[in-house]
Amino acid sequence: MQPILFDIENLTHCYADGTIALRNLSLTVKQGKKIAILGNNGAGKSTLLLHLNGILQPTNGTIRFKGREVKYDRKSLLSLRKHVGIVFQDPDSQLFSANVIQDIAFGPQNLGLPKEEVLRKVEWAMEQTETTEFSDKPTHFLSLGQKKRVAIAGVLAMDPEIIILDEPTAGLDSYFSKQIMNVLDHIQKQGKTIILSTHDVNLAYQWADEIIIMHDGEILCYGDPVTVFKQAHLIRKAHLDAPWVMETFQFLVQEKFFSSNEAIPQNKEELFQKISSIKSWNLGKISG
Question: Cβ distance 201 to 44 under 8 Å?
Answer without folding.
Answer: no
